[in-house]
Automatic annotation (TrEMBL):
The lineage of its organism: Eukaryota, Sar, Stramenopiles, Ochrophyta, Dictyochophyceae. Coiled coil: none annotated. The keyword Heme applies. It holds the Pfam family NIR_SIR_ferr. Belongs to the nitrite and sulfite reductase 4Fe-4S domain family. It comes from Florenciella parvula. This is Ferredoxin--nitrite reductase, chloroplastic. It catalyses: 6 oxidized [2Fe-2S]-[ferredoxin] + NH4(+) + 2 H2O = nitrite + 6 reduced [2Fe-2S]-[ferredoxin] + 8 H(+). Its EC number is 1.7.7.1. Residues 17-179, 290-415 form the Nitrite/sulphite reductase 4Fe-4S domain. Its cofactor is siroheme.
Amino acid sequence: TLKLHDVNQTSFQSALDNVRNLVGSPLAGIDDQEMVDTRPITNALNDLISLDKETGKRGNPVYGNLPRKFNIAVSGSRDDFAHTHINDIGLQPCANAETGEMGFNVVLGGYMSTKRVAESVDMDMWIPATVDAAICLSEAILRIFRDEGSRNNRQKARLMWLVEEKGVETFKAEVVAEMDSYKRKGIPTHYPSQKQSTEPFERRDLLGVHAQPTEGLFRVGVHVPAGRISVDEARAIASLADSYSDGEIRLTVEQNVILPNVKAEKLDALLAEPALNNDSRLGVQPGNIIGNMVSCTGAQFCPLGLIETKAPAERIMKKVDARVEVPKQLRIHWTGCPNSCGQAQAADIGIMGGPAKKLNPETGKMVAVPGCQIFVGGTIGESGHLSLEPYKKGIPIEDEILVEELVEIIVSQFNGKLKH
Ligand code: HEM
Ligand code: SF4
């Protein structure tokens, strides 16, 4: 049997004060709007971080003990599927106005936590979209962060705090000096961030069936409710991939699956597969309310969770879907506590575990019950902004109450229409 490491997968360094899993574009290489194929870059960054240069094996002490955890996102198109604005390093594709060369504007310091939620700041730097440049930049930032980031207070240890302590300009100057000191060829460090095209652009849909640039090939986005799959469902997806997409499966940050390179003549057969129809949880047309829902691990398995998330999300979203329809895809995110792994602040509607009170009819007293606060209006993509203040607080996590609240928000804020 193949081991994970033989197929370039690893669970090493996926937690603790490490660089977490790299995020790239789920449409890399199959996209007519692609600006950068993120795959070689994310693979090389993954090797930089998790491969021990001396032994050639996974598990790398060089970046194994950072001041705090660290995320890198490499975006491949104007959709920003990788969510650069909430990662410690975000690479946003943009051509150089002077040379025409494709490259990245660099943004820094985005993160979420209980104490603070921060959007990235512009580093005012452009680098070419090459593996060498992305490695050089990341190495320099990680070296400075590792050696100079604060290790005194874990609440103030993420990269943003170091950037703020030094000031963005000084931080940038130090990164540039570090990069230049490596004396690698062909990596210009003097360009400020470049202007992004102002042509109108609409962020694209990852679910459902979409033609690829190559005639006769399609990508098929499959919805996985709340990002949870059983062993049987995982095997079913693997079989679909073997039969229809040359064994390839792509994962999206919305916790869904894409089967790429499906041949036109096989599309109907794929769409008729039992694994995607009838009472299967998986499907290709989940609709606008359910399709882009996201859920964190939640209290069932996470020691920090204040509420359960995945099971209630799946159940409650179905009930909401039965009550209301919306003209556009809605992004509804569930997160079990203010650490916001489910990124409630980036969602159209974000549900975050928190305290609530409810009247006990027998005693006539208010009692503490599991509850949530709801964020509304976070945006993603090119001009993405987080919604930092809750729209509502202290709502008990009970199906009827929450369904009513969500239906009301969808109707009043997102042009929802009640179904009859
Ligand atoms: C694959 C995606 C993710 C999974 C499965 C996940 C899961 C978890 C779990 C299980 C914990 C609790 C760890 C413990 O036992 O202490 C945790 C902690 C935490 N997560 Fe996530 N998470 C994910 C993504 C994210 C993202 C995207 C963010 C930020 C937006 C985030 C922010 C945090 C924070 C702030 C904590 C508290 C502990 C710490 O800061 O290290 N997580 N996560
Ligand atoms: S947001 Fe969810 S997964 Fe993250 S720490 Fe809280 S309960 Fe756990």
